[in-house]
Amino acid sequence: MKPENLLELQDVRTHFPLTKGTLFPRLTGHVKAVDGVTLDLKRGEVLGLVGESGCGKSTLGRTIIKLIRATSGQISLSHEAQGGVQMIFQDPYSSLNPRMTVFDTLAEPMLVNGFATRATVAVKVAELMHTVGLAPRFMRKYPHEFSGGQRQRIAIARALALKPRILIADEPVSALDVSIQAQILNLLASLRKRLGLSIIFISHDLSVIRHLSDRVAVMYLGKIVELGSTAEIFAKPQHPYTRALLSAIPLPDPDLERNRERVILAGDAPSPINPPSGCAFHPRCAYATFQCSQRQPVLARQGTSETRVACINL
Amino acid sequence: MQAQAKALLQQIKPTRAPRYDEDHGTSLWADAWLKLSRNRLALLGLLTITFMTVVAILTPWLAPYSYDAQDLNLGALPPSGAHWLGTDTLGRDLLTRIMYGGRVSLMVGFLATAVSLIIGVLWGTIAGYFGGRIDALMMRTVDVLYALPFMIFVILLMVVFGRNLVLLFLAIGAVEWLTMARIVRGQVTGLMKMEFIEAAISMGIPRSRIILRHLIPNVLGPVIVYTTLTIPQVMLLEAFLSFLGLGVQPPMSSWGLLMSTGVESMEEFPWLMIFPGLVLALTLFSLNFLGDGLRDALDPKSAKE
């Protein structure tokens, strides 16, 4: 393991068996949600994980926190990250137990895991609430009495309760009003600085990724197709899929917006049950050649650039 | 002009709710209770049930006569000062018989429902929590039991073990838990997809705690509602069985038994059927109103978000 890395993934695959019949199931195939991901997370960085819905980014996050068992591959944490990985979920309306007060929600993981005793837990809950910008005097309230943004703060506080070094944020703002999104993003940015967190930020929103991330990994059908620094990827996207994604970001200047070059992707993303041969992107790629349907590209550096791309035509 | 505006402002000035406390939240339970207490019919039902239960418990001290005390000279008297609801054909006080009968009917209702509640909630929660093959196996078992004809099952039990009140509870409870298990299993299956369960799992909360603190409190709403609707079903079943002569044995009594003997002499002595019937109907109405009120009060769609 490289010394600057907190987390390393080595060829991680998460496949879900597809079966017919419940009592005597027969295997009919696999959903290859995550299909060979090699990735590292450096100390203190925010790694943006971007891709269309269904590309496997949420499954990858859930595999890292071991909510789902990886089918194969290795997930290793550095010694200092042994405190664990915690997750901030997408929907703050479903991620908080409606029958538990904020106090119960935050105290439970600390008590169960020995991070606090009955005597000290109230102080620790108050500290956590303060950290995420909630007034501790609301600790006896229930989730339904808070707004969406406040609920997401509670969910963030819970993720911090066990003092993790790594956070996985799974689309933490996509269920929120636009006006609230910026507040939560700024909170995450400031928490990262204050607590020295490393964050894997999962999103399909490129402008959010650009705002927050140091590096970006672009995912397509269970695989990483491009991985590099945010600046480089946004300035000079190399993979045709990344280019298509970036060309979909609207520009604030109306004149530029009118003449913006757009790459329209034909069709839907193919099914992860039966992915295309060779490069999974070739049926939708404007530059595809016969070779693309034959050879699986590997993530590799192209020329002098630091960015790694999985495309055989570069 | 300004004075007018001021007066208007005064009028629309928000008045504070009297019980409102800024720092203490209202739980969904407290909220449900508030809604229930605004529903008059449901509240009336709750009062009636409470009253019946208290009377049933205190019957040995409250009843004006003994349940088997006969005065053959006083056979089948209409209601009077000494016997408020009259006497039956054997000269026993009807009010006393109804009070003792209520003990049996209510006890069957509550105990059989409790049996079905415990089995049903555990069965459904386990099936829903583990899912997959365990779920399939457990729910197919429920399907098979559903298909058994209930009457044959009870008659068989009675024939093999003889007539026995405890057996009656068990027989009824053993049938009623099936629906409860299905309801709970459906709820739990839905809850398992909620992110707060995933969060609890990922934070190392033990399985038993997830079931007790995260799953069961969230399925309790529909369970409570179904329970209040099961009690009348069970009481009707008991009445039906007693009516067929499979339930409670004389000289003990239940509302069902009183009605069935009342029916025999309905033309000459109508009060022998009418009074037990009225009491049973009142209880069933009350439980149904309470159940309806609880369903509205606990409905997540009407809960404030």
Helix/strand layout:
The complex is a heterodimer of chains A (314) and B (305).
Chain A: E1 5-20, E2 26-42, E3 46-50, H1 57-64, E4 72-77, E5 85-88, H2 102-112, H3 121-131, H4 148-160, E6 166-170, H5 178-195, E7 198-203, H6 206-212, E8 215-220, E9 223-229, H7 230-235, H8 240-246, H9 254-258, E10 300-301, E11 308-309
Parallel strand pairs in A: 3-7, 3-8, 5-6, 6-7
Antiparallel strand pairs in A: 1-2, 1-4, 8-9, 9-11, 10-11
Helix pairs in contact in A: 2-3, 4-5
Chain B: H1 2-12, H2 28-38, H3 40-62, H4 94-130, H5 132-147, H6 150-161, H7 165-192, H8 195-202, H9 207-243, H10 255-264, H11 271-298
Helix pairs in contact in B: 2-11, 3-4, 3-11, 4-5, 4-7, 4-9, 4-10, 5-7, 6-7, 7-9, 8-9, 9-10, 9-11, 10-11
Keywords for this entry:
heterodimer; A: alpha/beta; eight-stranded mixed beta sheet; B: 305 residues; mainly alpha; MetI-like fold; 11 helices; 72% helix; flat
Overview of the molecule:
- The complex is a heterodimer of chains A (314) and B (305).
- Chain A contains nine helices and eleven strands.
- Chain A is an alpha/beta fold and 314 residues long.
- In chain A, the strands form two sheets. Chain A has an eight-stranded mixed beta sheet with strand order 5-6-7-3-8-9-11-10, with helices on both faces. In chain A, strands 2-1-4 form a three-stranded antiparallel beta sheet.
- The relative contact order of chain A is 0.14.
- With 305 residues, chain B is mainly α.
- Chain B has a single domain, classed as Orthogonal Bundle (MetI-like fold).
- Chain B has helices spanning 2-12, 28-38, 40-62, 94-130, 132-147, 150-161, 165-192, 195-202, 207-243, 255-264, 271-298.
- The chains are: A alpha/beta (314), B mainly alpha (305).
